[in-house]
Structures are given as C-alpha cells and as structure tokens.
Amino acid sequence: MAEGDGLSGMPPDRDGLRRVLLVASVIVALAAASVVGAWALFFRDDVDTPADADTPSYEHAQATAPETSTQQSGSVASGSVDVSASASVTEPGAPEGGTESSVVVPPASQPVVGRRAYVAYRLNDNIVVAGEDGSSPKVVAKSPSGVFALSPDARSLAYVDYSAGKLVLADTTSTRIVTVGPAAQVTPVWSPDSKTVFYVRDAKEHRQDVWQVARTGKGAARMGSGSRPAVSPDGSVVALAAGATTSSGPTELPLLRGGKPWRTLKAPGSVTDVVLASDRAFVAVAPGEDPDSGEQVEGIWALPFDTAVRPVRLVAPGAIADRASFGMLSLSPDGQRLAYVRAGDDGYARMSVVKTAGGEPYAVSTRRDCYPVGWTTDSSAIFFIEGNGWQGEPTALVRLKASGSGRTVIVSGASL
Questions:
Q1: Which residue, among 58, 60, 49, has the nearest Cα to 142 in the 3D structure?
Q2: Quick one: pLDDT band at residue 206, thresholds 50, 70, 90?
Q3: Angstrom distance (rounded) from CA 134 to CA 151
Q4: Which fold does the domain 14-97+102-412 belong to in CATH?
C-alpha cells in the first residue's frame, strides 16, 4: 500500500505511489484507496453498452466464492480463506457488530450516501469482498495484481488490470465485468453516491489526465490534467492533483465544483497524495525545500478551501537524519482522523494516524510495512494490510480501533 531502497516488496504501484515517490525522492518509493463499502442486493442498475469512444466489453469474471470463514468470539474470521476451492457463489451476510501542533478545526461530519459495512482485499490472486468482521467473503474478480477500489454501496468494484492496463468495473453480485478502457495504476476513487468513479489515464508528453465514468461503464469523460483525484464527502468538489515531480516550490492543486474549475489551492511542495474533507484538502508533500526560507516542506498539510486561511502542517518530517516520504492518505468518514504512510530510508513503510485537529500522531507499526485499506463506516476503527509478501513476510488484513488499541487480525494472508 514499497519498492526501491529496500521497499521492493510493495504491492505493484498501489495508488501509483511507487512511481510518484521514486520521482519525488531518491530515498523511497511507495507502491489505497482502499476501501470500506456496502453490499446492496436490490435497486440495481442495468448495464448497457456505452456509446463513447472507449466502448467497454462485457463478460463474466471466472471467479468462485470462497468458503465462509468460521466465526469466533469478537466477530473475527479465523485463519485464511481458501479462495481456490470450487464453491457456489454466496451473497455477503450482514456484519455484526514529530508534529507542528497548530490547531485545525476538524471538518464537520457528513453522512456518506449508501455506505455500509464491507471491505475489499486481495487473497490468493483474487479480489475478495467481505463484511467488516470478515464474514461471508466472496470472490469478485481474478486479479493477481493492480490497484482496486470498492464502491461505497459495495455493488461495484473498480480495478485496473495490471497486464492490460485497463479499468475494469465488476458487479459484485453477479461478477459481470465491464472493461472501460486504458487506465494508469492509480487507485480509482468513487463518488460518495457510488454512481461514478474517477480514474487516471496516461496522456501525451508524459502527462496524465483524470477521467470520470459511470458505474455502468457509460459516458467516460476527461475531467482535466492530474494524476491523483480526490472527492469531497458530499461529492461536490473534485481535486486534480498533478502528482509529485522533481521540482521544488509550491504546487497548484486545482479544485472542480460541479465539474467546472472552482478554486486553486497551493501546496508547499510536490504532492504525493490528496484526500478531501468537507472544507479542506489534506495533502502529503514530498521531500523538498521552500525556495524562500530554505525550510523542509515534506509532511502532511491541511489546505483550507478558504484560500484566505493559511495552510497548516499536521505532521513534520522530523530530524534530517530521519527524513521520510509521506503518502497513502486515508481520512475517516467523520473527518476526525487521518491515516498515512511514512517511508524512511531504513526500508520500511510505516503507517500512523493523526487527528485532523492536530496533535501527536500514533504509530500503527514500528518495524513492519503497513498500508491503509480504509475505515469502518462509523469511524471507530481502521483496516490495514500488515506485512509485505513481496519480501517474504506473512501478510494479514488487520483492524485497529481509532484510539490505537484493540488490534485484531481479520484475514491472514490478505494483501493489496
């Protein structure tokens, strides 16, 4: 959710950060998005062949459902799930139960339309969707590698086929798939109402563009130049981050409202990732210097939509000897906490959580790679992948309370 300089075990280009951070820093590279959603077995859209230039093709994914894991106390699935076994397709069951401490007022909590308690992860070269407690896992797509994102209502899965380099949309109930067209290995981002998904396509002259397409695969349209899309909780604002570069100095972050240019925020340096709250953008900034002051700008910053309000750095890089690259942001649904990955020159990608109001972050891991998957629907806990299979480490989908306590392994062997 890293490679180069000891991080080569990272899942392939998760969120495109491997490529972004390699360019942004010679120290590290990161390979989310991610994602907690819901399963809806009714009110389904019909899938029609779109008439746009990228005409999707339709087929049924060759995937079978894994056996349902045995429930233990605490609503935790035991062991790993065997997704290679032939079994009838099952529907998911309802789940049970170094900082500059300038204060930032947390964004207001906003309900997410149709969001319910499910999570997606990769297991044995398949993408699986299950309840937040690991119950009723179901194979939705065969995909050994590549980025993916589950829609908030969990009716659709968007993933980028690594070998073909194309965006694919899978119906999580029927496993019917739609191949949309060319896409880069950057995690797709769903609108809060699950009706559309934003993805990235390579363009001419080493540029990338953000595109939008309906969940049916219809109406693919270019939104503008960018390599890191983000959407506000109410779906009204879309950010088109340009991604990290080797240049120093402020980086513009265009915002669209109603599909049209609205405002342009300025990050203090090259942006490696971005997420939007209801009234601000949170950005991870690559190592670099302020051209005026000479100060290091890497870290996590809050950029208010109100451009008259100064940006605030939530997380600073620490001592020069401990400098790191930041990325893979995951904002809790209530807007109170932000998870991020910090990749240092010791070869580890560590995950931490910081309150958006400011204060000291807490580390989820100390000496193991960890990558955020997403938050529970009630923001009470975060899911993450622990370990790095590419480096021979055991991996697992883990759930941790927002307070930093109550670590629970949900699925052994799970990855991104």
A1: 60
A2: confident
A3: 18
A4: Methylamine Dehydrogenase; Chain H (2.130.10)
